[in-house]
UniProtKB/TrEMBL annotation, chain A:
SUPFAM superfamilies: DAK1/DegV-like (SSF82549). PANTHER family: TRIOKINASE/FMN CYCLASE, TRIOKINASE_FMN CYCLASE. PROSITE patterns: DHAK. GO terms for molecular function: glycerone kinase activity. Residues 7-330 form the DhaK domain. Gene3D superfamilies: Dihydroxyacetone kinase, domain 1, Dihydroxyacetone kinase, domain 2. One of its GO terms (biological process) is glycerol catabolic process. Keywords: Kinase, Transferase. This is Dihydroxyacetone kinase subunit DhaK. The keyword NAD does not apply. One of its GO terms (cellular component) is cytosol.
UniProtKB/TrEMBL annotation, chain B:
Keywords: Kinase, Transferase. PROSITE patterns: DHAL. Transmembrane segments: none annotated. This is Dihydroxyacetone kinase subunit L. PANTHER family: TRIOKINASE/FMN CYCLASE (PTHR28629), TRIOKINASE_FMN CYCLASE (PTHR28629:SF4). One of its GO terms (cellular component) is cytosol. Residues 7-204 form the DhaL domain.
Length: 330, 211
């Protein structure tokens, strides 16, 4: 393993330290908690605050989405591990402008518990909290058990829509509804070609045999739901699009936003190779791509692979998606 | 002896930390097979930090457990932070004000810890989680209480180990491994394993002090 690391125990703190220095025009560290990154635009008096959080190792997620008209405060966890309830609570306090706070996060056991405990902590401060739990990862559970699905890259669209709605001055219930609508409109799938290694562990936490790929892989190296022989980029792109669209059932003529994110170690040019085929597939189905994001938006350390997220758009989501924003990652 | 004093027992929590830290690589390895491989790292970090903070201090067992709970909940996070954090907080709560730890006090402590976990988690026995260790262990201790503290601790250890081993053949129904379905079978659950380490180490520490 060749990595730029000092002591693995210090990795998260050093990541956050470098991040807030590099992006000091947009974000700063919460003076009360070094595991909370706050947008320089937050809190905004009278506006709903937006909070998210999650384990580290997904950079630029989650910290990269703190910014103007996006997320107000981000709770930072250990590598691949939920932030503490205290960090979520401090993020909520930092984001609170007096109109309540929407916590928009992914469906993981630790995050669910810590957000629940954090909401209880800030209730004592009189802060109203609403939550939306992202569950866009199609392969993590069947459609009938959608509440069990993991949240993955669709969270970025959820934050964008929630942040834009809050920026327009909407009350907490409407911000929550818009973020829920956004994630309900998202479907995602991941394909892994190579595993990742937590520096403290020192070896990959699962194997992907050469010549194979894992379809439905999770953002933390959770093994995929099936292993197949590695195919060409076009065949993989077609598979990913089919998995997402079979779950989505969108009528022809729909407008969509598309996100193709690398998982950390896949060259960015290959993401464009995938996107070329994916957009062609969407066009063939009579869909129009209103907005495309291609790059390393939500990674998993040095995993080789990519995720595809397709969000169905209507007039409201389109307008919110297009609202200008400024954050380190978007 | 059938009881120990609760005063000046920070070393019990230090012994607990020592075992968790020693099993850091093992816990991460089994977690890595069906989870993300960080269980040992985060557990060792939390227990190790708590041990540093209580080292050499004159503390009651419940005060030392509260330090451990606080580190897990406010510095470690993940899912084990709140689960074990609340377990130790409620265990400490059941001991507060008691000068001696006897079978009745230990039962109160175990049951409070179990309720603490239930308060934040939703797992039941059979879901391939720490509950597969904790629930039968608490039941076995209570059932054997009338045979004396030492015998009840033995019964608890046996039930904890059997509970841990039962997760080998279970399919995960909750947590990160649950998304794997059948592929989670054949691997011990990391939480059930760490819970077994906690209970057996606690039992050993108490038994040595009673001897």
């Amino acid at each position: 393993m060749q990595r730029f690391i000092n002591n693995p125990d210090d990795l998260v703190d050093e990541t956050v330290a470098g991040f807030v220095k590099a992006h000091r025009d947009l974000v700063h560290l919460d003076p009360a908690n070094p595991r909370v990154v706050v947008s320089n635009a937050a809190p905004q008096p009278g506006r709903v605050g937006i909070v998210t959080g999650g384990g580290s190792g997904h950079e630029p997620a989650f910290i990269g989405y703190a910014g103007r008209n996006m997320v107000d405060a981000v709770a930072v966890g250990e590598l691949f591990s939920s932030p503490t309830a205290k960090s979520f609570a401090d993020a909520i306090r930092a984001a609170d402008g007096g109109a309540g706070v929407a916590v928009l996060y992914g469906n993981y056991a630790g995050d669910n518990m810590n957000v629940k405990m954090a909401a209880r902590m800030v209730a004592k401060d009189g802060i109203e909290v609403a939550t939306v739990v992202a569950n866009d990862d199609v392969c993590s559970a069947p459609a009938a058990e959608r509440a069990k699905r993991r949240g993955v890259a669709g969270e970025i669209f959820m934050w964008k829509i929630g942040g834009a709605k809050a920026a327009q001055g909407a009350p907490l219930s409407e911000v929550q509804a818009a973020a829920q609508k956004a994630i309900d409109a998202c479907r995602s799938v991941g394909v892994g070609l190579g595993p990742c290694t937590l520096p403290g562990v020192g070896h990959p936490n699962f194997q992907i045999e050469p010549g194979t790929m894992e379809v439905g892989i999770g953002h933390h190296g959770e093994p995929g739901t099936r292993v197949e022989a590695l195919k060409t980029a076009s065949e993989v792109a077609d598979d990913m699009l089919r998995i997402v669209m079979e779950d989505h059932a969108l009528p022809p003529g729909s407008e969509v936003a598309v996100l193709v994110s690398g998982l950390g170690a896949t060259p960015v040019n290959e993401l464009y190779v995938l996107y070329d085929r994916i957009e062609a597939g969407l066009t063939a189905k009579g869909m129009t791509v209103h907005k495309a994001l291609v790059g390393n938006y939500f990674t998993s350390l040095e995993m080789v692979g990519a995720t595809l997220t397709v969000m169905a758009l209507d007039g409201e989501l389109k307008a919110l998606l297009d609202l200008e924003t400024a954050s380190p990652a978007l | 002896m059938t009881a120990i004093q609760t005063a000046n027992q920070a070393s019990i929590v230090e012994e607990l930390a020592e075992v968790i830290v020693a099993n850091k690589a093992y816990l991460s390895e089994i977690d890595g097979k069906i989870g993300d491989g960080d269980h040992g790292i985060n557990m060792a970090k939390g227990f190790g930090r708590a041990a540093e903070r209580i080292h050499g201090k004159e503390m009651t067992l419940d005060a030392a457990l509260l330090v451990l709970s606080d580190v897990l909940m406010s510095e470690i996070g993940g899912s084990m932070g709140p689960l074990y954090g609340l377990m130790f907080e409620d265990m400490a709560g059941a001991l507060a004000g008691r000068d001696t730890l006897d079978a009745a006090a230990f039962s109160a402590m175990l049951n409070a810890g179990l309720e603490g976990v239930r308060g934040v988690g939703s797992a039941e026995v059979g879901d391939k989680t720490l509950m597969d260790t904790l629930v039968p262990a608490v039941g076995a201790f209570d059932a054997a209480q009338d045979q004396g503290f030492a015998a009840a601790l033995q019964a608890m250890v046996a039930a904890a180990e059997a509970g841990r081993d039962s997760t080998l053949d279970l399919v995960a129904r909750i947590g990160r491994a649950s998304r794997l379905g059948e592929r989670s079978r054949g691997v011990l659950d990391a939480g059930a394993t760490s819970c077994c380490l906690i209970l057996t180490t606690l039992a050993g520490s108490i038994q040595r002090r009673m001897a």
